[in-house]
UniProtKB/TrEMBL annotation:
<feature type="signal peptide">
    <location>
        <begin position="1"/>
        <end position="20"/>
    </location>
</feature>
<protein>
    <submittedName>
        <fullName>TPR repeat-containing protein</fullName>
    </submittedName>
</protein>
<dbReference type="InterPro" id="IPR016931">
    <property type="entry name" value="UCP029658_TPR"/>
</dbReference>
<dbReference type="InterPro" id="IPR011990">
    <property type="entry name" value="TPR-like_helical_dom_sf"/>
</dbReference>
<keyword id="KW-0732">Signal</keyword>
Length: 237
């Protein structure tokens, strides 16, 4: 309890970071550029998704041709958030295309949500090789490692994600979870303060760390640990 109070005290001194939308990484320059009308519809669908209007977002995406990889990717992401099984074949259709990294990423997220960490790790490792500078992929791979208590691998991925995009606190919050799990409260407090994590983020990290100590619950991964669990990434994949 004393350690937790120290952590929260340091956090309050560190202040809070702002949480803006983060753009999808452009991992392949060879994808055909949408027309201006298609781009308008994609942006409108994105805005609806950001507002939580996932069904409306999907309806607008369905007006666009599925021959465009970007359309299939956006639809897959919305369908995954809606819990639809139709997301998986769309992600698979991206393998071998200019959006292969995002396809592997999505398949990894789906496997992680089912608690299949082995398959999730395989997909996310392939995704990280295709797009090594995508911090969201590196974060999600770290989460899968953490869920299997592969702590050194998880730490490496979280640190990579943090250094790639220091303004995104998701990987920092996950690394705090790892440090609390190891009872390393001093480093956890320093990181939370430096990253500007909120009190709620630290509290959530503590809860996740406690759950990791109970093997029976180390299965499906909470959505708030995984990158792109909400469509806040913006309009440029």
């Amino acid at each position: 309890m004393k350690a937790a109070m120290i952590l929260l005290g340091l956090l309050m001194l560190g202040g809070c970071a702002s949480h803006g939308a983060t753009p999808w990484m452009q991992s392949a320059a060879s994808c055909p550029k949408p027309t201006s009308d298609q781009e308008f519809t994609l942006n409108m669908a994105q805005n609806m998704a950001d507002e939580g209007r996932l069904h409306a977002s999907l309806a607008n995406l369905e007006t666009l041709p599925d021959t465009i990889e970007e359309v299939r990717l956006r639809k897959a992401r919305v369908l995954r958030l809606l819990g639809s099984r139709e997301a998986e074949p769309l992600y698979r259709s991206l393998l071998g295309t200019c959006r292969a990294a995002q396809g592997e990423h999505g398949l990894g997220q789906l496997a992680a949500s089912r608690g299949d960490n082995v398959q999730a790790q395989q997909h996310l490792m392939r995704a990280s090789k295709l797009a090594p500078t995508d911090e969201k992929i590196r974060n999600d791979l770290g989460v899968v490692y953490l869920n299997q208590l592969k702590l050194e691998q998880a730490r490496f991925e979280f640190l990579t994600a943090i250094e790639l995009r220091q303004s995104d606190t998701l990987a920092a919050a996950n690394l705090v979870t790892l440090l609390i799990y190891q009872d390393n409260w001093t480093q956890a407090a320093e990181l939370a303060s430096r990253a500007g994590l909120t009190a709620q983020q630290v509290s959530d990290a503590q809860v996740r760390a406690e759950k990791l100590k109970t093997p029976v619950v180390r299965q499906a991964i909470p959505k708030d640990q995984v990158a792109s669990s909400r469509l806040s990434e913006g309009a440029h994949p």
